[in-house]
Amino acid sequence: MKTRITELFGIERPIIQGGMHYVGFAELAAAVANAGGLGLITSLTQPSPQHLADEIAKCRKLTDKPFGVNLTFLPSVTPPDYPGYIQAIIDGGVKIVETAGNNPQKWMPLLKEAGIKVIHKCTSVRHALKAEAIGVDALSIDGFECGGHPGEDDVPNFILLPRAAEELKIPFVASGGMADGRSLVAALALGAEGMNMGTRFIATKDAPVHENVKQALVAASELDTRLIMRPLRNTERVLVNAGVDRLLEKERTLGPAVTFADIAPEVAGVYPRVMKGGEMDAGGWSCGMVAGLIHDIPTVKALMDRIMDEAEGLIRQRLARTLPLVPA
Ligand SMILES: Cc1cc2nc3c(=O)[nH]c(=O)nc-3n(C[C@H](O)[C@H](O)[C@H](O)COP(=O)(O)O)c2cc1C
Q: 20 CA distance to ligand 1 centroid (A)?
């Protein structure tokens, strides 16, 4: 399948694996790259720029296809060593970066001078337009249904994507709620040039996370996510569990007075406990509503083959059949 996104990144299939904390390691990024998509290593999971450099080197051993790195810019009192991480990306010869969180303007000259293509992930048309104006090459538009941080506007992809298509000149992919060939065809119909998946890629044999996490995704329905940290205007969509229920109870009781310190036990340091330790009740970890569409744990390759077969079947058969072949 050829779209502006496959052309831009030199990939065979318009499918991206979004940056994921404690999931986006070399093994997953390489599996996605080897299956023809764009896999991303998540930099901030690596404790230092040297660790990121090692992870990039490891990924290079696992694939000779293009892969990228996610750089998430979080508001923080003591920011991570972003210049160091960017240097590791440049020195590692990585040519594609997914930025997310805050506007990447400050880092654009550095990335562009190194010949890096930037895809920025955002949750609103206004942020997308801003990113386009500062020179990013592509966008990943994250709808309200997404796992992770959906922003505060709550616009789902059925509206957000066509709105993005109305306004943007650069190519974008649909992110949030994407799971299968139906998602891909719908994304293309709504104006996107491909799709970005997070949650779906966790429930694969190649995802280097605890088996309990994968089983929890298969067991979950579309009703099992919750929005946490709304009062802090740092909303995150997570899979419900005992820790998340405790957190939400605190948010209810403390109301607008709730602070990060109040809920820290249910959010700080939770990722390694869940993803490595399989402690499913530890607290909030990102998960999309798309969990309701996840029923199995295939390899990344089998998943992506199935998506492409289903998408092709939909386009060539189901959709084509709606237009009877009547001579004009
Ligand atoms: C477990 C998990 C961790 C994530 N961590 C990050 C992250 O560190 N940086 C980032 O930009 N996005 C992160 N995301 C968001 C994904 O990259 C992607 O945008 C999102 O999952 C898309 O929605 P979906 O889950 O419905 O596919 C994370 C998502 C999940 C599920």
A: 5
CB 21 within 8 A of CB 45: yes
Ligand 1 proximity of 176 Cβ (cutoff 6 Å): yes
List, in order, residues 6 or more apart from 149 with CB less than 8 Å away: 101, 123, 142, 234, 235, 236, 237, 286
What's the burial of 139, exposed, middle or buried (CB within 10 Å: 0-12/13-18/19+)?
Answer: buried
Q: pTM to 2 decimals?
A: 0.97
| Axis crossing angle, helix 181-189 with helix 300-313, rounded to the nearest 10 | 50
Cβ of 24 less than 6 Å from ligand 1: no
Which residues lie below 8 Å from residue 59, measured CB to CB, with a gap of 6+? 26, 29, 30, 33, 39, 41, 67
Residue type, 69: V
Q: What sign does the dihedral 4-5-10-11 (CA atoms) show?
A: negative
Task: Tell me the chain's radius of gyration from C-alpha atoms.
Answer: 19
Q: Which amino acid is located at 267 in the chain?
A: V
Print pLDDT tens along the chain (328 aa).
Answer: 999 999 999 999 999 999 999 999 999 999 999 999 999 999 999 999 999 999 999 999 999 999 999 999 987 778 999 999 999 999 999 999 999 999 999 999 999 999 999 999 999 999 999 999 999 999 999 999 999 999 999 999 999 999 999 999 999 999 999 999 999 999 999 999 999 999 999 999 999 999 999 999 999 999 999 999 999 999 999 999 999 999 999 999 999 999 999 999 999 999 999 999 999 999 999 999 999 999 999 999 999 999 999 999 999 999 999 998 766 6
